[in-house]
Amino acid sequence: MRNFSTLLTTLLLVTVLSMAQTASSKSSSGKSEAKAADPSVPASLPSEATVDSFLQQTFGYQSDVTWKISSIKPGPVKGLVELDIILANAQGQQLSKLYVTPDGHHALVGDIIPFGAKPYEPAQKALEKGMNGPSKGPKDAPVTIVEFGDLQCPACRAAQPQIEALVAAEPTARFVFQNFPLEMHNWAAKGAAYADCVGRASNDAFWKFVAKAYETQPEITAENADQKLTAIADGVGLKGSDIAACAAKPDTKSRVDSSIELGKEVDVTGTPTVFINGRKIGNIGQLPADMVKNIVAFAAKDQH
């Protein structure tokens, strides 16, 4: 979910900028100048209590903001610690990332993006190796578009028409859907299990299933998800009871978990996230359609 990330990110930025100004003033006065941490030394992980205290100090004045610490782990860059935080207010929830510096006294807000002569190649190779979702288009296509989606995600629902239009406009591209149910959504994992089973039963039925799930998303709850998803499977020409039985099997959960792990490997933090030949686009629903088409055309040209 991305609709409410701007407010939450702004709150974090205000805090970090304030911290930076304070640190700068202390340094210039000579009263509290810390020794620079060696970035080659692996950072020690802060305790959950420390992170929770930081969040309390940062968001405590906002009575409608709550949080959950999803993970505290070594970051993608040596020396940094990555904090994955689920922030929520009355408008919705958002998975946010912060990076703590080796000295343990500063945090960075924003994305760490790949760099190099071929910056998107590692993600492209990881996706080609790990993808297990339904696909459209030729397997040897010059461009592969991969969407990580969550059937309960309103932002995915909103972006679906643009994604469908993109796929229709690029018949020579390959499009792959990967399940990435967010833990903040209470029936998303079940939706992913049903979607996985539908995709294995019929590739054609899968796309109809996803479209109908998004269309009826507001009507689906944790309590009626089995009933609604089974009915959707029936409606796309499959035997819903068979799909429901498949969705409950351990191997289906393993397949969904593998898709989630693949997403995490290529730095998916929210949905929908789209990759075009490994190039990550996290806000496709907010980008002009012509811009996305230009990226696809550029990616195809780059392969020749």
Describe this structure in words.
By secondary structure, the chain is of the alpha+beta class. It has 2 domains: 5-109, no CATH class; 121-302, Glutaredoxin. Helix content is 46%, strand content 17%. It has helices at residues 5-29, 48-59, 121-130, 154-169, 188-201, 203-215, 225-235, 240-247, 250-265, 289-302; strands at 66-74, 81-89, 92-100, 107-109, 135-136, 144-149, 174-179, 273-276, 279-281. Strands 5-7-6-8-9 form a 5-stranded mixed beta sheet. A 4-stranded antiparallel beta sheet has the order 1-2-3-4, covered by helices on one side. The two termini are 36 Å apart. Mean pLDDT is 86; it is low at 1-8 and 14-37.
TL;DR?
By secondary structure, this protein is α+β, with helices and mostly antiparallel strands.
Pick out its properties:
Glutaredoxin; four-stranded antiparallel β-sheet; 304 residues; alpha+beta; five-stranded mixed β-sheet; single chain; globular
Low-confidence stretches: 1-8, 14-37
Overall pLDDT confidence? 86
Radius of gyration equals 21 Å
Termini separation: 36 Å
Number of helices: 10
Give, in spatial order, the strands making up the sheet with the most strands.
5-7-6-8-9
CATH class of the largest domain: Alpha Beta
Task: Give the ordered list of helices and strands.
Answer: HHEEEEHEEHEHHHHHEEH
Main pleated-sheet profile: 5 strands, mixed
DSSP strand count: 9
CATH topology of the largest domain: Glutaredoxin
CATH H-level superfamily title of the largest domain = Glutaredoxin
